[in-house]
Predict the structure.
Amino acid sequence: MTDALTDALTDVRGLRVGHTQRTGDGWLTGSTVVLAPEGGAVAAVDVRGGGPGTRETDALDPRNLVQRVEAVVLSGGSAFGLDAASGVAAWLEEQGRGFRVGPDPAQVVPVVPAAALFDLGRGGDWRARPDAGFGRAAVEAAARTELGAPVAQGCVGAGTGAVAGGLKGGVGSASAILPSGVTVAALAVVNAAGSLVDPLTGVLYAQLYDGHAAYPPEERLAAAHRALAEAKEESARRSAASVHPPLNTTLAVVATDAVLTRAQAQKLAGTAHDGLARSVRPVHLLSDGDTVFALATGERPLLPEGTDPAFGVHLEAGAVNDILGASADVLTRSVVKAALAAESVDGPGGVFPSYRELYGG
């Protein structure tokens, strides 16, 4: 595999990403929208956390009617934050984009799958959470971007109030180009109950897989562990964020420009969860709602034109396997990039130090 142009989700041609967030005065939250090309993308989802907050995920079941979706919403605010999807649906309707239900082009019903993570109270105000206005602002931001534009990462969008194992979480994105020319990419919003850090070495678990591990010296490692424990204790004392047990949820979108069926897209979403299993320990807990969406824009056929049908099924399976394996790899790297891009927060809702502040890297 080789790195793609921006090493982000937007390397899958046609996808755009928009963020909106609000901080200060009790706020520390936001929303992120992944906007598909006009006409939509084949979509699927795999939910493995025990406490998910989702909308329209049943519509993505391959047995059901809707074939393509125009956007996916990731949001803070727990179940309240799912309101952001309403703002995206309203914007899509105004553009005439959605599932056609009548002869008039304006007769559309946008199906907008969404998932929310838990960040309530992390800015200090329990009632500060995204609404439909956040969703509209994020989708409008996505629509304004150029194709292939870099993706803002760190404490932005749905990652604004994200926390992972006491460390500040956030948004990260990565991509790769397979030898076949197919692009596979991911965007993660890292907000986990489990830890991102190997306690013995101070290395991000995910970096043990991506080959870029940097080991902190022993004296820094001990100090970092102490500082993280103190930050957790202080956060627990600040009432707005002292939810026990901690409630979290890591969200992700994986995407490819390959032609995939809805069943293959669902397999893609499931295999990508391996990237989270490499990066967060423990993962998929009852207090997480870990959710991965998959999008396939269908620009690149899996098989060359004129492939012998007798062998096509075997070749196609191999091509899909390559995409599945790459999805876990790019999601692993997305978690690394989220952790390294995050910046420390010290506010009324808690103390959330960044990985770089404590461990370096």
Remarks:
- The CA atoms of residues 76 and 117 lie 5 Å apart.
- The two ends are 24 Å apart (CA to CA).
- The chain is about 30% helix and 25% strand.
